Amino acid sequence: MGNSVSSNDEWIQAVIQQLSPRFGEFASDILSHQVEPLIQKVFSQSNVPNVEFKFTKLEFGDVPPKVENVETHGTPEGQETTKSVTIDFDFIYVGNCDLQVSILGIDTGVRDVQMSARARLVMKPTTKQVPFVGGLQFCFLTIPQIGFDLDGIADIIDWAPLKRKVIKELQEDVANRCVYPNFYKIPMSSDGTNIEVVKAFDPTAVLIVKLCSAENLAKKGGLSGGLRSLVGQNLPDPYAKIRLGATVYTTEEIKNDQNPTWSENENVFLLDTVKGHNVRIDFYDMDSFSRDNFLGKIVKSIDDIPEIEVLDETIELLDDEIENNSKTPTDVSGEAKLQFQVLPIRSEPSGFTNRFSVASIFIYSFNNLNIMDDGNIYPNSQVTIQAGDQIKLSEIKKDSPHPEFQESFVFLLKQEQSDEINITICDVDNGSELGKVTLSLIELAEESLQRKILPINPDQPYMTVTLSANMKYC
After folding, report:
1. CB count, 10 Å around CB of 243?
2. Global pTM?
3. Alpha-carbon distance 37 to 159, whole Å?
């Protein structure tokens, strides 16, 4: 699916340099509206009383992120009508930013700011007019490694344990915002390019990962078991986390077993392209009284997984210095048996039994929402989209009778999971329902909706939603 070709690092470095001001604006917004309250929350949860944390200066300097190990992929199969270019690269930021914060009224600086991750830049659709691309989609393919310190904070509070919590919270927040399949989207063209093409997430395949078993996992206290072996408590209670980008599945815990077997753990991921992704499996020993011990990791590139056929592999567990950083690191050992399968997504049902349906919804806007009773005040609204037991939420749009969402929602459904999708818009301040529309998956399979205007309230037919929707199969 698609082509992989070599690329010039200098070219993508130039692109990133041109985009740096946009990234700076994005980072400033994140620091002010997300990081600041997040750090404040960590302080309060850690019994640090009356600590006020506030950014007082945000300047990101003139050193752009560094780019290495560039790979370029052409338009994925099945998307030939929308030409695109996908560029993967190592994103490394060690900039000369000038960030100042206030803690307990004391001004201090943020130093040694670093961030690194594998990243992806998608340029689509390609056009014949300057700037030759309708828009950009940016995401990290892996959870970024984040580092920073605060000058003089050790004189105020015990910073080391709080720093670990802050970084963990930051990584989770970044994952929810711009780690695959979550993209930061930038429209680039004003020539009438369909915003849905620019902003929609359009998967081309499904990856299925099954963890079957593991052998010779490290015992508690090391390979020999240490003192725990004398009291029969030296075997691990293993479980695994299976991750692709921000999507994570956790297996069941197997009690007291160095050679565990997992039965029900089919883990499914949507792929924008089968090129450039890695799936990572981290193994842990459950501990009820302290931090779970790291047992090892597996990182598998999906580039060489054939379509449709099931690939069986036995893979050795590897160490990871970031995860395995306790005072008594684990002596990583063992191997695991896994199954991998890639199923291409097709617009029409195949002659074989389809395992999954893929329902894609793109919400352009809601229109003519009712004015509130107390004057010219309009609702703060949010959309809920539900298919079976899967629920997705839009961003909140404030104080508008015609909120524009321009958001994409994709549901991967087993055949028996649902026969309809419910789209509801509510006032987030009082929880009241403003309107609702239900889409039949059977009707959607027969005919897609393209920028369709639908009523959402039978009593007030001027209240509508504008959306697109389609069904695909694999």
Report:
1. 24
2. 0.86
3. 17
Average pLDDT over residues 183-199: 81
The H-or-E segment that residue 442 falls in is: helix 441-446
The domain defined by 205-344 folds into: Immunoglobulin-like (2.60.40)
Which residue, chain included where needed, has tokens 């593991």? 214
Q: Are 82 and 124 in contact (CB under 8 A)?
A: yes
Query: Could you tell me the pLDDT band of residue 267, with boundaries at 50, 70 and 90?
Result: very high
Return the residue matching tokens 């944390």: 53
CATH number of the 356-473 domain: 2.60.40.150
Phi, psi of 283, rounded to the nearest 5 degrees = -105, 140
Average pLDDT over every residue of 422-443: 94
CB 74 within 8 A of CB 123: no
**At 108, which helix (H) or strand (E)?**
strand 106-123
Domain ranges of the chain: 4-198, 205-344, 356-473
- Cα separation, 89 vs 71, in Å, equals 6
Q: Give residue-wise pLDDT tens across range 304-361.
A: 899 889 999 999 999 998 888 877 888 999 999 999 999 999 888 765 567 899 999 9
Instruction: Give strand ranges (E) for 124-237.
Output: 135-140, 145-150, 184-187, 205-215
